[in-house]
Every structure is written in C-alpha cells, then in structure tokens.
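Dear support,

Our group has been running a series of protein-ligand predictions, and this particular one with 2-acetamido-2-deoxy-beta-D-glucopyranose is the one our PI (initials K.S.) wants archived with full inputs and outputs. We had some confusion internally about which version of the output was final, so please treat the block below as the authoritative record. The input we submitted was:
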Amino acid sequence: MASRSCLYAYFLLLLVVFQSTSPIKGNSLPPPQCRRVLGTSSEVIQFLLNFLYLEANLYLYASTGHGIDAVAPGLIQGPAPIGAQIANLDATTRKMIEEFGLENVGIIRAIFETKQVNPIQGPLLNLSVEALGGFANAAFNAELTPTYNTYATTINFLPAIAAVNSFIRQYCVGMLPHLANDDLQVLGTKILGTVSARFGALRTLLYLNANVIVSPYHFDVATLVDRIAQLVNRLAMCGVKDEGLIVALQLGAENRTTTNVIPGDVNSLAFSRTEREMLRGFYGTGNATLPGGIFPHGVNGELAEEIVRERLS
Ligand SMILES: *[C@@H]1O[C@H](CO)[C@@H](O)[C@H](O)[C@H]1NC(C)=O
Ligand SMILES: *[C@@H]1O[C@H](CO)[C@@H](O)[C@H](O)[C@H]1NC(C)=O
Ligand SMILES: *[C@@H]1O[C@H](CO)[C@@H](O)[C@H](O)[C@H]1NC(C)=O
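Confirmed final output from the archive:
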C-alpha cells in the first residue's frame, strides 16, 4: 500500500515537473481530465498505432471487403474486426477511401521501420452497423429507426469516417510537441501532413453535400456532422474542438464567415486532443477506462496500460 501511494506521489510529481517544463508556452495548465498521459515518444507513437490500424481496416474493408492483412500480411496482427463490411460507395469515393486505407499501411510500416516503436497487437474492432449506429443514436439522443447504417451509402459513410479522421488528426496535432525523439518527431510531422490532407478532402466532400438529406431520416448532412461533433465534444469532455460544416459567425474564421470546412480555434489553428479524450470518444462511454464502441476490449500498448493502471478515466 505504502509503495503504491509512493508511486502515485511520484507520478504526481512527475506530472507537475513535466507540465512546468512543457515546451508549449502561453498555455495555462488544462484541467486534470484534459492533460496528457506521460509517455516516451515511442509510447506516444505506439498509442497512435491503434487508431491508424482502425482507420486502415475501416477504409480497406469498406472499399475492398478486405482488411490490412490482405494488403500487408503480418504487418500488424490482430483479431478479425467484428462486422466490418464493404460499403455501398460511389466509384470515386471508393477509390479515394481505398487509397487512404493503403496510405495507412505505408504509415504503419514506416513506424515499424524506425525500430523505435514496439509493435502492438491490433485491438479488437467493432465495426458492425450496430456499433457505429450507436454513435448516431447518441448524437441525436434518440433511437434512429431504421438503425443508422454507416455502410449503406456514400452519404451515410462520409460523416462517420470524417469524425474518425478528425480525432486522429487532433491526436497527431497534440502529440507532436511532446515527441522528444528527433526521428519520431520528423516521422510524426509527416504523418500529420498526410492525415490532415485527408481531413481536408473528407470535409470538402461533406461540405459539397451539406444540404443533402440523409434518407430515410429527415436531417441533412450538415445537421448530422454537427450532431456528431457535439457528441464527440461531450464524450471527450475537454471543450468544443469538433465543429459542424456551418457555424455561427462567432465561430467562423475571423468572425466573418459561417462556412467551416476546416474547424479551428479563434485564430483558425487546429485543436489538439489527448490520449484520454481519444479513448473517451472512441469507446463511446466518455470514460477512458471503460472500453466499448469501436474498441470493445480497449486499445493496446504502454500508454493504454498506464491509463487502466492509473485509472485515468
Ligand atoms: C459490437 O457492437 C454491438 C453494438 O453495440 C454489440 O451489440 C456487440 O456485442 C459488440 N460486439 C462485441 C464483441 O463487443
Ligand atoms: C471573434 O469573436 C470572439 C468572441 O465571440 C472574440 O473573442 C474574437 O476576438 C473575435 N475575433 C476577431 C478576429 O475579431
Ligand atoms: C470509468 O470506468 C471505470 C471502470 O469501469 C469505473 O470504475 C469508473 O468509476 C468510471 N469513471 C467514471 C468517472 O465514471
């Protein structure tokens, strides 16, 4: 018991030291639930692997009917995703999504080629219509009937994956200043470049379809994107960082526009997210130690274990 509380005190101390020597200037200390989990550069990139793996499988299954294993056998081992399926996408979107999935395979390979990041077991993914539809229900705080089917059409698919990609982009933004290892910081910067470009492409497609009704429901794409953004912000518990495609003037760039293809803060700078915000959102529970949603058994790696061990909900 004593050694345990000692350890805890040690971590607290580390946290204080870490925060006070943080290279990010001008930021006041965020509230406890919005602070990063302490980790080495390798552990941070390892944490990111969970989400690159998710994105690769989601995109590859949806566009081709096969996952990461069919493209790069053995690159990252994991159980077969639950309910992953080919989506009914238009030809252009299908090619784009396949490309994005393939890109993640290369990114994951590049991470391993540094030889500085320990491999993880691919986490179990729940990509079933029901699991993804659960997020749509939560977004509208209602039981949508029929169940929201992410795979049914391009219009149904895009808002879901744009939300997934947004989260990953924000994690990349958040992690970069904390990568002390030079090689990994260079790699992380390049990953952010690719992931951000993808975000722009997905948001553009959404914006072009903002007024399209998501049938058989009665809401349009703009409303759906807005509700998902609100849900993500609620779950992550660290303020408004995801935003709709059309916003109030006060949230638009320079307070002069209501279009919001690329969300940002008051100076149009990208928002960042921490490990625990990621898990609260992807688990769909608002609790980083209570797995569910897309990761029924949680994510893997050192930081994931630390979050469970230290009960960093
Ligand atoms: C996948 O998600 C659905 C909907 O939430 C759930 O009913 C099912 O049990 C989940 N599967 C696993 C293995 O967690
Ligand atoms: C936009 O409005 C917000 C308050 O709603 C204010 O804090 C901000 O400074 C304004 N930005 C500009 C560029 O005027
Ligand atoms: C988060 O989940 C854990 C594990 O189920 C639970 O013990 C804890 O009380 C939850 N935390 C919050 C804030 O709900």
